[in-house]
Design brief:
single chain, 802 residues, mainly alpha, Phosphorylase Kinase, domain 1, Transferase(Phosphotransferase), domain 1, five-stranded antiparallel sheet, 6% strand, flat
Length: 802
């Protein structure tokens, strides 16, 4: 994480009282939070191992025992004895020493963590190991009440709390004890090490939680340690004091040598490194294309990397404060000392002082960095320093990279444009960038003008001034970035719907006339009250689809137009297979409302991907529920040949999408939207209400579909269980999307009837239920969609070319 590495003269006088702590203050440190995250993760892994991999651990223990049994018994007894005595005696000795020196607070905190870990380990592991491994039923027989070692969890918890108080040698010794406990348990104990990871995870979690709750000593070096550390590098300080500057990720100090030279000192310790690791972890988990490299192996390597970047920038001709020294200091901390510069950072000067000449000077330095492959990665105004003589300095290379990728270099351009816009305005900020890097540079920066590609301070400034969208629009205009090509089209005539309508009617008629196994034909409606629930479920499904579409939009349009576009898209499904006309219709409606093609593709693509994910999730849930309670039961007399033939037909039908004609249609209409779904998701960043609408709406669409099928089945007197109905409904709908039949007409009806019969429904009931279901959920909405499509065309609500 980056920070400011040069002082300002105005800030240097803000704190002129020297700090020299006799007793370190207690703080809730980022290191404790990081350890808590690690502890929870290790505990989760341990629980999975204890719960689901007990057979594996028992087999591993058996293999190790075969090796260690070659040793004499007295040798085999040594490791468990040493570990056991250590886990018992060390806490006793530590507590005696704490009481002797009256460290009552530390005594209470250490014992609280140890007791909590002991109790949680005992209860949790007992709950997880009540049943022995299935392949090794006697694996736990040697355990006297427990298959784990709660003392190990207590030891780890106390150790985690005590880390800030322990010297490095003691910390290493404790680590060896914990490692030896695994060896002792794995190879020399009768009980398998099934819960060792769980014990360690619980210990880390409890220790870190207690440390976070009650605080740990602040490990940041004090004034005395700083003076001593600088003296080891030959810098004799007369005075040093905290510097009140914007310093995220480090602690800044400002001092004067005995010769009168100003020195700026940047101090980093393990808390700073922990915060940086969590920051990088968040970016790795939730962001894409950040350009982040793997973290350095240690704090020392990170500081040395920053020093290297500072020296490299200076060698490239970029004005930056002179690096005086790098030194180790205090308890696992490092410092970088720079020559202090009289002046102020640009974020502290007034906007009137930021002239066009000053902007050009800043951009000239950035161009030099770009030419030498150096990415600064935090080019906000706080990191551009104006000296008293007017000289500009680029400071803080804590997050910088050498041999930077084009992605990182483009991000630097976007960061500087975005950080200057709130100060000088969009026009002047883009003007300065265009003068320095030209149209090509603006085009490279445009792709990175995204909220989470920018730094937190820049993002906050843009949000406060509401400038991100105007800035993107201006850069896009100046860079002359073309609209993405999109050639998805909707057939101009509704005649294309005649074939699927006839196919659906023919299939339905064939099913009604030739109900297999029945002499009475389809079953009549037995419960008219259930028909109303079919209609209600259909309306809920349409409302959910409309809500999901609204949630996918960055720029909103009226609910009426969204509803009309959804109905028209449903009708468009009958005009062309593989949803090509459906997606083209939705994109065309958005474009007609002034939404850029890229944004329209992103919104539609995001809605489609979310719908696929939620439908697969509900399908998986139906399978799991049915499999668990045994409700899915294929009838014994089902013709396996028909099932195989139907499966082969699905595969062959799906493969027709690879033919030249269908492939071109899919490439033109569907592929651009699917490729743009990430951009659609990014556009919703910071809009939790829209994301909630998208997710909830997408989830309720398949649920409403299942509800309609259940109600239709009950309306005709069917008794098939809801999980089976859900499995058939969702499975057939998913497969029909890949078949070359517009709207799934014909194949959906046949597939639903076949699936219901296969799972035990009487044929006459299945046919009636499917006819009712399809009329309510497909054919009636298609009729409404035809009217909606006609209205959209007449009122120019479908963009040209669609």
């Amino acid at each position: 994480m980056a920070d400011v590495t040069s002082p300002s003269s105005s800030a240097s006088t803000a704190a002129d009282v020297a700090v020299d702590h006799g007793e370190r203050r207690m703080v809730r440190s980022p290191t404790s939070l990081l350890r808590l995250i690690v502890g929870v993760t290790v505990t989760a892994v341990g629980v999975v191992i204890t719960w689901r991999f007990a057979n594996t651990m028992a087999a591993l223990n058996r293999d190790w025992e075969q090796l260690t049994h070659l040793l004499p018994g007295w040798i085999r007894a040594i490791p468990p004895l040493v570990v056991g005595l250590t886990l018992i005696l060390v806490p006793v000795v530590v507590n005696v020493q704490l009481l002797r020196y009256r460290r009552l607070r530390l005594f209470g905190v250490v014992n609280l963590a140890a007791l909590a870990a002991f109790a949680i380990s005992e209860v949790a592991v007992d709950a997880l190991t009540r049943q022995p491994p299935g392949l090794f039923p006697s694996a736990y027989s040697a355990a006297e009440g427990s298959v784990n070692d709660p003392l190990l969890a207590a030891f780890v918890a106390a150790f985690v709390v005590g880390i800030p108080y322990l010297p490095a040698a003691t910390r290493r010794l404790a680590g060896w004890v914990i490692g030896l406990s695994l060896i002792a348990t794995l190879g020399f104990a009768e009980v398998p090490a099934v819960a060792w990871v769980t014990d360690v995870g619980i210990g880390i979690t409890c220790g870190a939680a207690v440390a976070l709750l009650f605080g740990t000593p602040d490990t940041a070096p004090d004034r005395r340690e700083l003076i001593a550390g600088l003296a080891r590098s030959g810098i004799d300080m007369a005075d040093i004091r905290p510097a009140a500057v914007d310093a995220r990720g480090s602690t800044p100090w400002l001092g004067t040598t005995r010769s009168g030279r100003g020195v700026f000192v940047k101090v980093l310790n393990q808390d700073n490194r922990s915060a940086d690791l969590m920051f990088r972890g968040f970016r790795a988990l939730f962001l894409r294309n950040t350009g982040d490299e793997r973290p350095m192996s240690s704090l020392r390597r990170a500081v040395e990397h920053e020093a290297l970047l500072s020296l490299r920038a200076a060698a490239a001709g970029v004005p930056t404060p002179e690096l005086l020294t790098v030194s180790e200091i205090g308890n696992d901390a490092m410092l970088l000392a720079f020559e202090a510069i009289e002046g102020d950072s640009l974020d502290r000067v007034g906007s009137d002082a930021v002239t066009d000449d000053l902007l050009d000077s800043i951009w000239a330095q950035v161009v030099t960095l770009q030419d030498h492959g150096i990415a600064h990665r935090d080019l906000r105004l706080a990191n551009v320093f104006v000296a008293a003589d007017g000289e500009l300095y680029v400071i803080d290379f804590g997050f910088a990279e050498l041999a930077a990728s084009p992605l990182l270099l483009a991000t630097d351009l976007a960061e500087l444009i975005a950080s200057t816009a709130p100060v000088v305005g969009v026009e002047r900020a883009v003007d300065a960038a265009e003068r320095a890097v030209g149209v090509d540079g603006l085009a490279r920066a445009f792709a990175r003008l995204q909220p989470y590609a920018l730094g937190g301070a820049t993002r906050a400034a843009l949000k406060e001034a509401d400038l991100l969208d105007p800035l993107r629009a201006e850069v896009e205009r100046r860079a002359r970035i073309p609209e993405p090509d999109y050639h998805g089209t909707v057939p101009a005539s509704g005649r294309a719907a005649v074939l699927p309508i006839l196919l659906g009617l023919a299939t339905t008629a064939a099913l009604i006339v030739g109900v297999p196994g029945s002499s009475t034909g389809p079953a009549p409606i037995a419960a008219w009250g259930q028909v109303s629930w079919v209609v209600v479920a259909t309306v809920i499904g349409l409302a959910a689809a409309t809500t999901a579409s609204i949630g996918s939009l960055r720029d909103g349009i009226t609910v009426r137009h969204v509803l009309l576009s959804r109905l028209a898209a449903g009708f468009a499904d009958t005009l062309a297979p593989w949803h090509t006309a459906n997606i083209a219709t939705r994109v065309g409606v958005l474009r007609s409302h002034g939404i850029e093609t890229a944004a329209a593709l992103g919104s539609v693509g995001l809605a489609v991907v979310t719908r696929i994910v939620t439908q697969l999730a509900t399908l998986y849930l139906a399978v799991r529920i049915s499999g668990r309670d045994g409700s899915i039961d294929v009838v014994a007399d089902a013709d396996v040949g028909w099932v195989v033939a139907a499966g082969a037909g699905v595969v062959v039908g799906a493969l027709t999408a690879l033919l030249p004609g269908p492939r071109r249609s899919i490439t033109r209409a569907v592929t651009p939207a699917l490729r743009a779904w990430i951009a659609g998701l990014r556009s919703l960043t910071g809009r939790p209400v829209r994301l909630a609408q998208l997710l909830v709406g997408s989830l309720f669409v398949p649920l409403a579909m299942v509800g309609a099928m259940v109600a239709a089945d009950r309306a005709v007197g069917g008794t098939l269980d809801p999980p089976s109905l859900a499995l058939v409904t969702l499975g057939v709908a998913f497969l029909a999307a890949f078949l070359p039949f517009p709207g799934g007409a014909g194949v959906t009806e046949a597939g639903l009837v076949g699936g219901l019969v296969l799972l035990g429904e009487r044929a006459e009931l299945a046919v009636s239920a499917v006819v009712l279901f399809r009329v309510a959920t497909f054919w009636l909405p298609v009729a409404a969609g035809a009217v909606s499509m006609r209205w959209l065309r007449r009122n120019a609500q479908l963009a040209s070319g669609s």
